[in-house]
């Protein structure tokens, strides 16, 4: 199993500003995943973050809007840049064990006003 | 992309009753998983069923998989108030991450 500490748990931000979300894992993992969950919706993968390489973004997500850092095998950050109300969502980080079983952080509930 | 489609989208039952949720998917899979999410928090893994399995049990959970119909069901027996949550099926894994269904919001009435 894996224990993931994600922070902040929630934030209310002004439009045009940026928020950086941190994710700390209690063990070394190769891949970390960032998901977005819009209000009342399911999870959508934003990007996959590997240590020592550029993140791989899914269709519809770009690095300028969602820059990701992965400085080591236990930590990653996701920044939501130049926020607008449409960015109001829950953002979740995740790791997979044995390439299948996913463990999630508790999520960051972001409200942009 | 959203591969899984759950139904119903919302389900409200009395405590003690059984709850059944269904999931359909579009592409071939190696396995299918079910996750629970309480009040918009992180997801918790419930159960995984592999493509060569038809049924799997874990406590009060029973999952079936029909690869010919590309569908799965999750049955929660003897429901409790604490089972109130959203339930998602998910396929994939590995470098491509997971693809989640739209989810079923389950409410257990005391």
Please tell me about this protein's structure:
The complex is a heterodimer of chains A (113) and B (110). With 113 residues, chain A is mainly beta. Chain A has strands at residues 4-7, 10-13, 19-25, 31-37, 43-50, 56-57, 68-72, 75-80, 89-97, 101-104, 108-112. In chain A, the strands form two sheets. In chain A, strands 2, 4, 5, 6, 9, 10 and 11 form a seven-stranded mixed sheet that branches. Chain A has a four-stranded antiparallel sheet with strand order 1-3-8-7, with no helix packed on it. The model of chain A has no long low-confidence stretch (mean pLDDT 95). Chain B has 110 residues and is mostly beta strands. Chain B contains no helices and eleven strands. Chain B has strands at residues 5-7, 10-14, 19-24, 31-37, 43-50, 55-58, 61-66, 71-76, 85-92, 98-100, 104-109. In chain B, strand 6 (55-58) and strand 7 form a beta hairpin. Chain B is globular and about 40 Å long. The model of chain B has no long low-confidence stretch (mean pLDDT 92).
What are the SSEs and their pairings?
The complex is a heterodimer of chains A (113) and B (110).
Chain A: E1 4-7, E2 10-13, E3 19-25, E4 31-37, E5 43-50, E6 56-57, E7 68-72, E8 75-80, E9 89-97, E10 101-104, E11 108-112
Parallel strand pairs in A: 2-11
Antiparallel strand pairs in A: 1-3, 3-8, 4-5, 4-9, 5-6, 7-8, 9-10, 9-11
Chain B: E1 5-7, E2 10-14, E3 19-24, E4 31-37, E5 43-50, E6 55-58, E7 61-66, E8 71-76, E9 85-92, E10 98-100, E11 104-109
Parallel strand pairs in B: 2-11
Antiparallel strand pairs in B: 1-3, 3-8, 4-5, 4-9, 6-7, 7-8, 9-10, 9-11
Binned strand content of chain B:
over 45%
Secondary structure class of chain B reads mainly beta
Total number of helices of chain A: 0
| Total helical elements of chain B | 0
Q: SSE order of chain B in H/E notation?
A: EEEEEEEEEEE
Low-confidence stretches of chain B: none
Shape of chain B: globular
The dominant shape of chain A is: globular
